[in-house]
Design goal:
The longest helix is centred in the middle third of the chain and has 24 residues. The chain is mostly helical. Among the domains are: 63 residues, Orthogonal Bundle (434 Repressor (Amino-terminal Domain)); 122 residues. The radius of gyration is 21 Å and the shape is globular. Helix 11 runs antiparallel to helix 12, helix 15 runs parallel beside helix 17 and helix 19 runs parallel beside helix 22.
Length: 405
């Protein structure tokens, strides 16, 4: 299993092969020369996603060239999850929305129910269950979307969009970013054919997430901005389609995080305020497992603060609130919050490491398939291990579960 300590070594190797000096590479990434030197030597770690993306761009490589993703599976469930990806890839390349294989397909209602069940399993970070038979499901939905009668086509396109959300999310969280992007784009294409503003915006949100995780922030921002412009005229939380407001809110949250990665706190705050205003009117909702509402806006505000280097103060505020995670209804969102609490407390440079360990342990127990495949989570484990002043069972357990050290 690839260890996070190797990220700094990969940075050094690629930088040297590019013929870049420390000073030049650091300047291109927007960081100082001493900081880059510490990253390469392992004295500092990559606790912010934006830093990984900035360095990859500066070095002219993919983020995965630095992280070593996808990681070898550490247990049977993880192996089963990874084993679903080749069939998903084949299905998406073998069928398009204009040409499909000549194969039988189950009734579209049955397929739509399977897509909903897969999406629910993915939201619980059970990728092995969500991905089981997903390749066949994608193929059959394509067949109905191309060959069915008008009502059947519409039902198939809606279910296909949801199935693509599952494929994109699973692939992204398992480190297969090219496949995630391909699935997300197919979902966008299916949603466009339905001319459904909310579904199109949710599909754009999925593409934005895939692009951002790849490090393609410029394109991700363009996709999010275009989708926001298209959905905001329809985004009325009190209207007949409140899901349009949910979709607009999610795009604002994604835009806030990307602004934070750009170290632009003003723009990030603007998007967070827009999302919070929408969430105050929608309340807690969960259309298509996107979990939009006040609780998720609060959780994303922590992720934004961490990217801005302000995570400790925000983590203290959230962790000091009673029931701060009870309204996050999916394992994916609860684990993400506890992981970001760990990142926030880890930014206190050692004084809050016990809390960081506790929240990272909780995140991993809630959604191990999600957290253990996250390169930044693995970096946080390494940071906490390096700073530990004495042996602790919880930290030893995290090292063993993540295969770090």
């Amino acid at each position: 299993m690839s260890e996070p300590a190797e990220i700094g070594a990969r940075v050094r190797t690629i930088r040297r092969r590019r013929g870049l000096s420390l000073e030049t590479a650091a300047g291109l990434a927007g960081i100082s020369k001493p900081y880059l030197s510490m990253l390469e030597s392992g004295r500092r770690r990559f606790e912010r996603r934006g830093l990984l993306e900035d360095l990859a761009r500066a070095l002219g490589c993919a983020v995965t060239d630095l992280t070593g993703e996808p990681y070898l599976p550490g247990d049977r469930a993880m192996a089963e999850a990874h084993a679903t990806l080749p069939e998903i890839s084949i299905a998406l390349f073998d069928a398009t929305l204009d040409d499909v294989p000549d194969l039988p397909a189950r009734p579209v209602g049955d397929l739509a129910a399977l897509a909903r069940a897969a999406n629910a399993a993915s939201a619980e970070s059970r990728y092995s269950l969500a991905g089981r038979e997903l390749g066949a499901l994608l193929t059959e939905l394509h067949i109905h979307a191309v060959t069915g009668e008008p009502d059947t086509r519409r039902a198939a396109l809606g279910a296909l969009t949801e199935a693509c959300f599952v494929a994109a999310g699973n692939a992204r969280n398992l480190g297969s970013h090219d496949l995630a992007m391909h699935a997300a784009k197919r979902g966008e294409e299916a949603a466009r054919r339905l001319a459904d503003p909310a579904l199109a915006a949710f599909a754009a949100m999925t593409s934005t997430s895939a692009l951002s995780r790849m490090g393609a922030r410029h394109r991700a921002q363009r996709v999010a901005a275009a989708a926001l412009a298209a959905v905001e005229p329809h985004a009325d939380p009190s209207g007949d389609a409140p899901e349009t407001a949910e979709a607009a809110g999610m795009l604002h949250l994604s835009s806030a995080q990307m602004a934070a990665k750009d170290q632009d706190p003003s723009r990030a705050d603007d998007h967070l305020r827009e999302a919070a205003a929408l969430a105050a009117r929608t309340g807690e909702r969960n259309t298509l497992q996107f979990s939009f509402g006040p609780a998720n806006v609060r959780a994303w505000s922590l992720s934004v603060a961490v990217e801005l280097g302000q995570g400790t103060a925000r983590a203290e505020t959230i962790a000091g609130t009673n029931g701060y995670d009870v309204d996050l209804v999916t394992a994916d969102r609860r684990a993400a919050l506890h992981f970001d609490l760990a990142r926030g407390f880890a930014q206190a440079e050692g004084s809050r490491d016990a809390e960081a360990v506790r929240h990272l342990d909780l995140a991993d127990r809630i959604a191990p398939q999600r957290v253990r495949n996250d390169p930044v989570a693995r970096e946080v484990v390494a940071v906490l291990d390096r700073r530990a002043r004495r042996a602790a069972w919880e930290l030893d357990s995290l090292r063993n579960r993540f295969g770090v050290g």
